[in-house]
Each structure stands twice: as structure tokens, then as C-alpha cells.
Amino acid sequence: MAEYVAESDYRQALKIRAYILAPFTLLLLALLVFAIAERYHGFLEQDEAAAERRMDMIQRYYHQRLQQDSQFLGAAIQAIATNDRIMSLYRQHRRADLAAAAAPVFAALRSDYGVTRFYFTDPDRRNFLRVHQPRRHGDFISRYTTLQAARTGQSAHGLELGVLGTLTLRYVTPVKDGDRVVGFIELGKEIDDIIADLHRTLGVQVTVEVDKVLLDRSSWTEGMAMLGREADWGALPGTVLVSHTTPRAPITLLRAIEPPHGHANLGGHHWDYAVVPITDVAGRAVGRFTFLYDGTAQMGGLVTSILWFSVGAIGLGGAVFVLFHLLLGRVQAMARVVFGRLDDAVRARTAELSDEVARHRRTSGELLKLSQAVEQSPSAVMITDVDGAIEYVNPQFTAETGFTLAEAVGRNPRILKTGRTTDRQYANMWQAITGGDKWHGEFYNRKKTGDCYWVSQVISPIRSPEGDITHFVSLSEDISVRRRQEEELLHQANHDPLTDLPNRLMAMDRLTQACVCNRRRRGRVAVLFLDLDMFNKVNDTFGHEAGDRILVETGHRLARALRDGDTISRFDEDTVARFGGDEFLVLLDGLHTAQPVPGICQRILDAFRRPFSVDGAEVFVSISIGVALSPDDGEDAGELLRDAAAALNQAKDQGRDTFRFFEPAMNAVAAQRVETESLLRHALEKNEIFLEFQPLVDAAQGRVTGAEALVRWRQRNGEVVPPGTFIPLAEETGQIFPITEWILVQACREAAGWPVHGETPCTVSVNVSPPHFLRGDLVAAVRAALDQSGLAPQRLFLEVTENILVEDSPAIQDRFRQLLEMGVRFSIDDFGTGYSALSYLRKLSFSVLKIDQSFVRELPHDRESVTLIRTILAMARGLELKVVAEGVENEGQLAFLRDRDCDLVQGFYFSRPLPAAEFLRFVAERNGG
Fold this sequence. Notes:
Layout: H1 2-81, H2 84-91, H3 95-113, E1 117-121, E2 127-130, H4 144-152, E3 156-161, E4 167-177, E5 180-190, H5 192-202, E6 205-211, H6 217-227, E7 239-244, H7 251-256, E8 261-266, E9 269-279, E10 285-294, H8 296-327, H9 334-375, E11 380-385, E12 390-393, H10 395-401, H11 405-408, H12 423-434, E13 439-446, E14 452-463, E15 469-478, H13 480-494, H14 504-521, E16 524-532, H15 535-542, H16 544-563, E17 576-580, E18 583-591, H17 596-607, E19 612-614, E20 617-619, E21 623-630, H18 637-653, E22 659-661, H19 664-681, E23 689-698, E24 704-714, E25 720-721, H20 723-733, H21 736-752, E26 763-767, H22 771-774, H23 778-789, E27 796-801, H24 803-806, H25 810-822, E28 825-831, H26 839-843, E29 848-851, H27 853-856, H28 863-878, E30 882-885, H29 891-899, E31 904-905, H30 916-927
Parallel strand pairs: 21-22, 24-26, 26-27, 27-28, 28-29, 29-30, 30-31
Antiparallel strand pairs: 1-2, 1-5, 3-4, 4-5, 6-7, 6-10, 8-9, 9-10, 11-12, 11-15, 13-14, 14-15, 16-18, 16-21, 17-18, 19-20, 23-24, 23-31, 24-25
């Protein structure tokens, strides 16, 4: 009977298992799958958010580095542009000397800051000198940054794509002489170091791709081989891979990803990626960056977490299943069921405790890693409570500040306060962090020793699970070295490297501020524009080093002249600035009247009446001063500086070593000069320049043997501008070069059509200024004029003045040699009026000597003129030179010269300068056909 009951209970238990345990088992499995899926989905959301933050940080870091590097290049160019030695060589077109002077600057920039490009460019964008490749020059620069700087007259900078697919950050600054651009300075550096920093600092792999349509395949392939990089043109569909930080080019991965961002699994790795377009300075999309982050370790952690979670859930579900199984197995006896339940409960609890112990061990391990990371962090870490009391500092904090953990805990961060940070800054910081936001800024802190240093600091609130702020955490980094470097660069950009006085940039900024402030308080500003008189003779006589010492002493004398005896409280050393070359600027701020200014100017003049000592010799250098006052002469910096410069020119014209206040009439003269210069720049293209020819006559036979080509300028209004007015202006502004080249072509074309009388055809003479012989294009210009006209080289004479004789330059001698080998002959013009150096008459192979008309004018009655003419004729015969006498205006002068065997004469006695057609008629009449 007992056995029957037991079996009946057993069968009843089976029915219960069938109706209850099966659905319960399915429910447990469903809950397990749902929990695993939820955990996996939560991890993916966290991973996605972390990837987006990481990629955003990478892009912000990249753009911040671009901006910092651009600012550095700009500051470096400003420092170069204020280097008088370099800029002087540049303006003088002394390429070899400029290359030698700029090479150490480039080496320092390249070694310390990674600069790879250093250019000097002419105003027409022709490359004058590549300091990084000094043998390459003469090509035109058509990059966007250079075009932008040429168009706007302002600095331009940005990222540009090179022909090899490399990306270069360029900074171009115009070099100005007044308002005129005389060239450009350019610095550039590749962005490879930025990419390397991204990889090294943020642990991200970076690839750079460039659109194929922007590259020439053969040039790119050769360039990649030259740079030692892989070059597979067809690896990617629309782009080529030009750079990457991965050990091998990730071509397969790049093909698999889809912009703009996402995840990819390849080769057993899980990658987070972001694709960012590369935009150049012109706004073009030229390629793309791909930032790759290896998230394999995080994905492995997810798998491990899910595995452990599954094991725990299965164990718990199994325990519950066993519990139900035992409860429903009450087929044997109540005691057995009760003991079975107790046994199962003990086993289930043991399993739960084991799982909880494992979870605690994992949590302790994570907390240990976090603690070690904070303890070993390279940043100083500080944790405070909500009232600002310090609760923790890490060893790096102790190393930076000197305060140990025991000394810092319980105290306020005010122990680091120096007083340099304003209360407003502290209030803004406190408002941000107590409002739940992160704050970032810089502090000037004090160490335990009393030393001060700069830190970059980030402060963030720490919240409880309920969302309440419980603590604040601060991470700081010592940036003292960076701040010192920035201050040094700022000082270099705003101060003259020779005298350490404020430079042009800072002077103009201070003048602008002074004008604004004085308009507001109705005060006055005086601008003193100063220039050393005849300073170029000091450099020519004693050398540039002696000139530099005088410039330094000039700054000291000006500062002492302002301080000694002044009752104006605003005067200090910073009121003296070096404006460039031998020009200085003095700013007198806070004046109520102009009464003190003449006395100050006189003290400055007196200070320069004492001699300078140069290598034991006494050298006297005076100074001229132009003065402009606000608001009488102008209310802004530009007007005051312009008027002071006009007054300075007036002081120079009135004998130097004096001062002059600005008068409105001075601007009229300057404006007329500017207008004439502007019209002259367009005179050639408007066909306003023309030639006239003054005949050269054989003194003995009276026949015309040639002519001197004389340039004339007739403006559109019919007014003829005298050569004595526009020729000096053309030489000063550089317009003399295209004008002379035009004269060469026109004169040769006209002379090629002149008739040949006898065995000696008519010659033509063209005046060439000494600067032409320092330019490399004179020989080419002469050759082009002869080739275009067909004129025989022996019929062309180039006339130069005696100033060329004192320029004992190998370059000039080389130009002479090349032109003589071509067959061209030379005349020395206005002989006796310049710096005669007779040895060079034969050394430079002159053929003709022209006596200046000032000596001919007093013939034959002036004894000194007679003696001088006889001496010149005798010397010329001894040197086997022909002689031309200029300015013959009467029969007596002609007779005197003819009787003393003067070869040729020219002047109004025979003819005024004639247009080409009238000259031909004169030749026909004079030579008989």
C-alpha cells in the first residue's frame, strides 16, 4: 500500500512538471536572452558615444594645431621682416648674400619648429629666393595664398595641396615700402607632424587621401618614391593614399568603411572610424582624413562580460529550476521534501554568494586600476568637496606644487593663489562648475617654495547616482615653458632685434590707442618722425657693424633726451620706437598744449651734436625731425604718421639737423608726387612714352654719325613732363627698368632703318642707369632688342655715368664682358661731374667719353673750362677714346672743339632733339642725300 501511494505521488509530480516546469524553463531562457541583449545594446550605445567624443576631440585637436602653427608662422615672418640685415639684402636684390643671411634663420626654424619652406618673392610673384633650395629661383608663384596676399596687400595663410599630394600649411606676408608692395615672404611646413602628434598623443591611426583629379599620376608616383612612401594609384577608387601612421597601408579597411563615421571589423580587429574632408585655403575639398581607433580590447571586454553574465544567469536559473523540481518531487515523503528543499536552498545561497564574491573581486580590480591611473597620471589631480576643501591630491600635484597629501588635505586651493587671477575669473569658474558644467582655463599659481608658474587647468563636477554634485575634480598641467616661448615670440614680433625698441608694428598700435584715448579725454598727441642724416655714408665708410652700433646708441640718446628734465608724467622708454632702417618714432602722449614739443625737439637735436665713437674715431651724425600734432594735423594714426613724414622731408630739404612742424602745403607736394608716380606706372601701356633723337655730328666734317635716344613723356592732357622730373622718380620707384627696356627696343628698331652713308652707318646711343648692371636681365634685354630689330651690335652704344666706376662689383664687370663679347660698345656720360676713376676707363673697355655740357657752356672765354677741356682731350687721346662734347650752342664753342681735335659734338647749334621722321630728314639734308 505504501509503495502504491509513493508511485501515485510520483506520477502526480510528473504531471506538475509537465504543466509548470516546462513553461517556467522557457520563461527563464527568455529572461536570460533578454538580459544578454540589453547588456549588449547598452555597451554598443556607450561605445558609440565614446567613439563620437573621441573623434570630436581628434578633429578639435587637429584644427587647434593648424591655428597654433599658423600663428607661429605669422609671428616668425614678422620677426624676419624686422631683421634689417635680411630685409636690406632683399631690397637690394643681393640673392647670394640674402641666402647666406637667411640660412641660419631657416635652420633654426626647421630644427625647432619643423618649418620646411622659406621663400622671398618679387612683387610680380616671381620667386627671388628659396632659402630651402637656394639654387631654384626665377619661377612664378601662383599659389592661392600668394595670389591672395598680392590682391589684398595683407597676410594670407592656410592649407595648400602640393603637386606631390603633400599638404603644406603656408603663411605669406607682403613686404611694403610705404603703401607699395615690394615683395613677399613665405614660410611653410608640412602637416605630417600634426598627424604624428595625433597618433602619439591620442592613440589614433591617421590616413591621408587626396582626390586623384587634383594630381598628375606620373608626378605623384615619382614624388611618393622620392619620399619613400607606397604609391599604388589604383588601390582606391577615387583617391590616392599619400600618408598614414599605421605600420602598413590599410587599403582593405579603407575600401570597407563608409563616411562619415562608424565601426568596421577586419582581420580580427574592431575599428572605430571617422572620415573628415580636407579643405584647403581656397575652400576646395581636396581629399579626406580617416581617423581609425582600434576598439578590439573594448569589444573583447564586452564578450567576456556577456559570458560571465550568461554563466551567472544560467546558474541562477538552474538553481531555481532544481528548487522547483525538488518542491514538486514530494512523492516520497514530507520529511524528505522538507530536507530536500533546505538542501537545495543552501546550495542556491552558496551559488549566489560565490557569484557576489566574484562580482566584488571584479569591482575591486577596476577600482585598483582607476586608483593606479590617477596616482601615476602625468597631470596634477586634485579632488575637493562642494565647499572647496581638498580631499585628495596625486603625486604629480606634489611634484608640481611642493605640497604633500597631508599638507594639502583639508585646505582650500587658495594656497596656490598669487593674486594675478582676477576675482571675476574666479567667479566665472565657480559659476560654471557649481552649475554642473566643465571649466577650462589658465592660472598663474604659486608653489610651496614661493616660485610661480603657469598651469592649464580643467575642473569638472562629480555627481552622485541621484545626480547631485558631491565633489569637484581638477586636472592641471604646467605650461610655464610654453608661456615663456609665447612671450618670447610676442616680444620678437613687437620689438626691433637690433635696438630692442618697439618696432613699427607696436609703434602703430600704441599710436592708434593714444589717438583713441586722447579723442575721448580731449587731449593731444605729438608724433615725432626722426631720420639720421646721411647715415648711408657711415655704412659705406665704416661698415654695417659700426652703423648698427650707432643705431643702438641712437635709441639710448633718444630715451635719455625724453627723460632728462621732463615734467610730463606719461613719458617712458617705450615712447621711443625704431620704425625701420635709420628712422625712429617718438610718441608724446597726454599733452594739453603743444608748448613742450619744441623744447623736446631741441634737446634731441643737441643730443646728436655730440660725436659717436666708432673704432676709436669720432663720427658726427645729425638728425632731422618732422612733427605732427593731433587733432590739428589728423585724428588717426595714419594721418599723423603721413603728416610727420611730410614735415620730416621738409626738414631734410631745408638743410637737415633741424625740426619742422607739419603744414598743410606739405601734403600737396607729396600728393603731387604720388599722382605723378601713379600716372608714370601706366605711361607705357597708354603709349605716352616716346623717343626723340639728338644728332651726333662729326666736328671736322659736319656729317651726322649717329644720335642719342632721349625719352619723353607726354600725358593725355598734352602736358610734357620734363625728364628731370620723371626720370629720378622712375629710378626711385623701379619704373626705370621697363622704360629702359622699351627704349632699347624702339631705339634699335628706328636705327635699323637709318640709311648707311659711306662705310660707317649711323649709331644710336641709349642711356642705362647703374642699377641695370646689378640686374641679371640687362644682357637678355639688349640681346632681345638687337634680335627683334636686326640692328648690328656695333651700331649700339650704351651710355653710363661715372657712378658705375665706383661700383667695383664682379657682377657689373661680368655684364660689361658679356655685352662687349656681343659687340655692343660703351660711352661714359657726363664725364667730370661724378666720381672719376680713370683706371676703370680701360678696365671696363669704354669706347667713347662724353664731356658734360656744364664744361662746354663757358667756352672759349672761361680759363678753367678751357684748361679742363684740354686735359680731358689729351687724356682721351692717350687712352685711345673718342670724345663727344655735349651742349654746343654757338660757332665759337664748335671752333674751339674742332681746333683741338674733338671727334664728335652735339647740341642746339645743330639741332634740338627730333622725332624719328624729322631726324631722318635732318640726316638727309646734312649728309647730302
